[in-house]
Amino acid sequence: MTTATTSGRQPGPDARVRLRRLHYRHGSDVWTVGCPETGQAVDLPGIAVTVLRALTDGATLAEAAARAEQEHGVRPDVPDFVATLVTLDFVVQVATAGDLDPDEHQEADAGSSLPWLRPSWARLLFHPVALTGAAAFVLAAFVRLALLHRFRLGYQGYFSVHSAGLSTAWNTAVLVAGVVLHEFCHLAAARAAQVPARLSLGTRLVMVTPQTSAPLLWLADRRTRLRFHLAGAGCDLVLAAGSATVLAQTRPGTLPAELAGSALLMQLSAIAGQFLFCVRTDGYLVVQELLRCRNLYGDALEHARHLAARSRLLCRLDRRVAGYAGRPDPVLALPAHERRPVRLYTVFLLGGAVALIAAALGYALPIAVTLLARGAGEVASGQPAQVVDGLAMLVFEGGAELLLLALLVRGWRRGRAERRRERAAAARFSRPVP
What transmembrane ranges does the database entry give (predicted)? Predict the structure, then answer.
């Protein structure tokens, strides 16, 4: 008897497998299979689901292959597929001979952030009365502010006080508070649907992005998925409306008015950032859902590499690009309704990525260097007020840049392995045994 702790050796045809509790959802052309225990979800063809259900019924690997061949006309390499399932952590136990031991495995859903948040509490945020009240508040706040002509969109609005360091500290506090509430609403939307979700930090090209990961969201219905994607933007609008209300209620030029104006500008910038479709923002996820695409970003990236493979220079620079040389366009393997959106999104992906990187190098980086140099100079001046201002600048601006660098390094190390694991089952299962 062996447990599923390694994937280096494939089980024999007479082996039996105990799988974790799996959930299935049939899409237009593939099945989404998710495991509540681990929080993992993958897309698989129908023949793979046939094998999974046969293994769940207690069939040996050879019997599962025979059932798949009978139903689909192709005999798959089930031992290889089981080895992939082990890497996905879908397997509890593999019996190399005889029957499986009595199932003593205690199943539990994948751990979620904020376990104290009950689904019944989370559903209150999305009750029709709450949503209607929030929409009315947002509309009234912005209509009143527009009538007063009190809001400035210029960059000067970011500086609520004369001290650049203290302005940076205030803006950072507003940004962090907004991000926390934004992700909390995503988490609440998942909790209301009883979908496991976890909070984490990640990157999008050159930006630090807190994110709420809910791999099993694909098992939910479309309405639930859209609510999850839109929950954060709804929170941002309510926060911006709150700042607009304070700005409208205070006297122009006073500190409360300046702080509220700066906060409003930060919150509107966060909302605008959700429309950066070249990275996987909430806006991108909504568009992907409306277009009924499975993985718009990943498919467009593969299409871009296929196009880049026509260049010998790019093939030499990137092995992933070289792997697409001589292969058919991966878009042709997609369902017909996804092909045009993927080709169009490839243009947004490439153009937007170039624009964001150029803006980071030509705009954001010089500003960051200038602010850090100014902060260091103020600390070195010895003047108490300037020392405080310089320290605030170094702590908040320098801390943000160090966090971005650390996350980029971590993402560079882990990104390819994670993407490869998500597609491993379908890729391995595509090779039938002669």
Answer: 124-147, 347-371, 391-412
Give me the mean pLDDT over the 167-196 stretch: 90
Domain range for 156 is 111-290
Q: Tokens standing for 260? A: 């509220």
Burial class (CB in 10 A: 0-12, 13-18, 19+), 382: exposed
- The Cα 247–Cα 252 span in angstroms is 8
Which of 290, 316, 337 represents a domain boundary (last residue)? 290
For residue range 328-347, what is the model confidence (pLDDT) as tens digits? 888 888 888 889 999 999 99
Q: Is the same domain home to 144 and 283?
A: yes
Q: Is residue 312's pLDDT more than 70?
A: no
Residue 81 sits in the same domain as residue 60: yes
Cα Dmax for the chain: 83
Instruction: Give the best-scoring range by mean pLDDT among 39-43, 278-282, 362-366, 424-428.
Output: 278-282
Judge whether 341 and 296 are in contact, CB under 8 Å: yes
Two tokens, residue 42: 């993958």
pLDDT at 52: 93
Neighbours of 25 (CB within 10 A): 16
Q: Total domain count for the chain?
A: 2
Helical axes 222-249 vs 282-290, angle rounded to 10°: 140
Residue 105 phi, psi dihedral angles, 5° rounding: -75, 125
Q: How far apart are CA 291 and CA 411, in angstroms?
A: 28
Q: Are 286 and 141 within one domain?
A: yes
Q: Residue 17 in contact with residue 281, Cβ under 8 Å? A: no
Is it the case that residue 243 has pLDDT exceeding 90?
Answer: yes
SS3 57: coil
Same domain, 206 and 239: yes
Q: Specify the pTM.
A: 0.75
How are beta strands 16-19 and 91-95 bridged, if at all?
A: antiparallel
CA 69, CA 50: separation in Å to the nearest integer?
10
* Same domain? 50 vs 129: no
| End-to-end Cα distance, the chain | 29
Query: Rounded distance, CA 357 to CA 144, Å?
Result: 37
The answer to whether residue 325 scores a pLDDT higher than 80 is no
Which alpha helices (H) appear in 382-431, and where do they start and end? 384-393, 399-422, 424-429
